[in-house]
Amino acid sequence: MIALSNLRFTCSTTRVARTGQPVIKCLARPPMWRNATSISYSGCIDRRAVLSSAALLGALLGQRSVAVAAGQPEVEKVLEDPRWPEKWPFRPENFQRYDESPDSFFYSQSRFVTHIDDNAINALTKFYGEVFPTSGLESVAILDICSSWVSHYPKGYTPGRVAGLGMNEQELSRNVQLTDYAVKDLNVDAKLPYADNTFDVITNCVSVDYLNKPLEIFQEMHRVLKPGGTAYMSFSNRCFPTKAISLWTATGDADHVWIVGSYFHYSVPEGFSAPKCKDITPKVLFGHTDPMYVVYASKQA
Q: Residue limits of the Methyltransferase type domain (predicted)?
């Protein structure tokens, strides 16, 4: 038997059973396994959390989903005309999770594995190489939030500082790209332990879907970024579904782009540039690869 906490999932569909409990059908892929296993689970998230999360974006955008409106190949266009509502559109229940036990319990087990496939990792590393400041500059500082044992930065990239903020000290201590690290649960306390205007770049790799206080965290990101600094939020369609927020597990890839863009838009009004999306999904001739997207914005000078 494989523990649920050791699995990453590609969630394909979400429905509400007659019992009112959410049932999410997923492809489970244990770390380092090439084959996927189809499973499902049901739980006791408030029915409103699932129904409102699944329907909310469609209601906001003329009774249709962003994913339907944009089309998968045109996911980058989602943020070209986002049609932001005047006020923050989400409700507290949209940020509920199936497993509301302390994240410190879930992440106490070290996982020295990668959570996206090699093609997606290579695409993200290549993207970082194209957008990061010049290597070798002592004045450049980067923050990797929700960090782990690897940050997927280009090999040999050496800014003056790379700070890592994550949940597992063993994993962080193994990350050779970090110059310093701190252990903190941002879902308990969103305050970043850094001074104002410290970092040129902030990265977050496949973890934005777990944040249950996104506005507060994005406000903190804005605070610690230098004027003109940029935050890059990358994500795929794989997750630990018990820990991802209901808004995420009930929606699709293009919807996720809109959701992350909204975090930038509403957290600090006019404090970030208009968020943009880059679809960096690798092109492969044969087989499967994980989709990969980056939503990013810069702190207004």
A: 177-232
